[in-house]
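Usage

Read records sequentially. Each one opens with the input sequence:
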Amino acid sequence: MPQKPNPAPAPPRSNLLIRAATASDLDLIRALLEGEGLPTSDLEAVRPGFLLACAGTRIAGAGALERYGEAALLRSLVVAAAWRGRGLGHRLVKSLERQARAAGVRTLVLLTQTAQEFFARLDYGVIAREQAPAAVRSSSEFRSLCPASAVCMAKSLR
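and closes with the structure output:
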């Protein structure tokens, strides 16, 4: 029986660069998000601020902030399959939190269907959707893109 080829291992963590996304990255970001079943229909309209984790010219992960005054929606956190289990999601969230603090954001809010335990380990707590700041609740993620079954979580950056 022929052996399946082993996928190439992901490069070492030290080869990763976390950087702000540019307009030319949008198609690659969209493909990564859609591959994981995350919403993309509002990306052009909302233009959330993405950070990318890049290994050379390849995008290993992404995450974004949508700012609403002193609050922001942490959205679209995704790590490519070859990079999972290496702390990349943690690094992206911490980078997004630093960016949010520097911009004067005091509260981060997110919706998740699959990553509640991951975010709980990063000190995000479950809240009722109604407890999220009104401006964040007006986002397309809250109004229509994420199902009512998604768990709402928040973290104070004070």
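Summary fields computed downstream for this record:
- Residues 1-11 have pLDDT under 50 and may be disordered.
- The chain has one domain: 13-156.
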